[in-house]
Amino acid sequence: MAVYSTYIGNRPCKDADMKKRKLEESIHTDLSRDDDYTAYLRLDQLLGAQIPLSEPPHHDEMLFIIQHQVAELWIKLVIHEIGAAIRHLRTDELPQAVKNLVRVRPVQSQLYNQWKVLDTLTPAEYSEFRHVFGKASGLQSAQYRILEFTLGNKSRATMAVYEHQPEWHARLEAALFEITPAQVNVKGKTAEGLGAIGRGETLRVTAVVLLTS
Questions:
Q1: pLDDT digits (tens, 9 = 90+) for 147-206
Q2: Domain 61-181 class?
Q3: Which of 103, 143, 146, 185 could form a disulfide with 210 if both were Cys (CB 3.0 to 4.6 A apart)?
Q4: Spatial contact of 192 and 203, defined as CB atoms under 8 Å apart
């Protein structure tokens, strides 16, 4: 009895019928479990984090979970890039800061466009499993609040939501009290007639920095 492993068109074929393709020399096959693609990206943990709460699992709950987990990953990257941009601005590395901010733009596009996928979930379908995650809401996203704080939109009142999550509360508190560019207002006064060698070619600048809470 022949054993067929796959099909070509509508015709079943044996392994021997399939074209043999040689692997490129750059592809490694002698991998340990610690240095392969799966291990590097921690795919076991990542792909094992989608656990529907509905019983039996509602088909569309998987979409809902992945949608929001992916959004959190993109927000993490935005925080990473904006944080780097702020550090570069503080050390007058403007080109690198601009590069970081330029990268944020397509990430924002990804965040916006991925909602088209969730649009395929109807309100009726959503209502069939909404009850399983109780009071949970995207408005509780700690990363979203960190991003807001980093950009200068800070509110101590929002901290109360995260008191039951000590690690996130600590990160939010750090972002809350971090001085951001939006909090710095520099006003300068100039006095003409000064120069390094007395030729009156430069300006004296007095800067007043105001920090807002």
A1: 999 998 999 999 999 999 999 999 999 999 987 655 555 555 455 444 455 555 555 555
A2: mainly alpha
A3: 185
A4: yes
